[in-house]
Please model this.
Amino acid sequence: MKIGLYFGSFNPIHIGHLIIANHMVEYSDLDQIWFVVTPHNPFKKKSSLLDNYQRLEMVYLATKEYAKLKASDIEFNLPQPNYTVNTLVHLQEKHPNHEFALIMGEDNLKSFHKWKNYKVILENHHIYVYPRISDSNVETQFDSHKKIHLVNAPIMQLSSTFIRNAIKESKNVEPMLPKNVWEYLDEMNFYR
Model:
């Protein structure tokens, strides 16, 4: 089975994440998308994150109705901060019959050359890239790499940061979230 790994804080998961993941699984050769909830991104301040298990619960709620989308806590028990290369090695050992690929936005591809052991990742895994609007250019080494696949997915301008800020300002964000995620988030009084 070919699994696309969609890494993120998912703080919170929103319909943009689901639209991209669903597009990737329906319009590529990927069989499933696993939302890998990252406990601590080396580039983000940990203090702004909800608890790991609260974010995992939201991802589970958002994906449970979709057979090809799964929530994953694989990074919760790995050394922190989490580096993608280590997670990939761990997953390959744990699931030797699966092939793992990365899903990332075009903005992340632009900084991919700064990732720990990025050449090792590219040697062993395919990368599926969805478009993002930005000013900078992709490194020329990644322009036509045989393992990098640009997928013509819808451009999503929705972000978790926008949603968190809107909640703080008492704006209605309900249409931007899966219904059961909104209900959980509202009930738990998150981001207020």
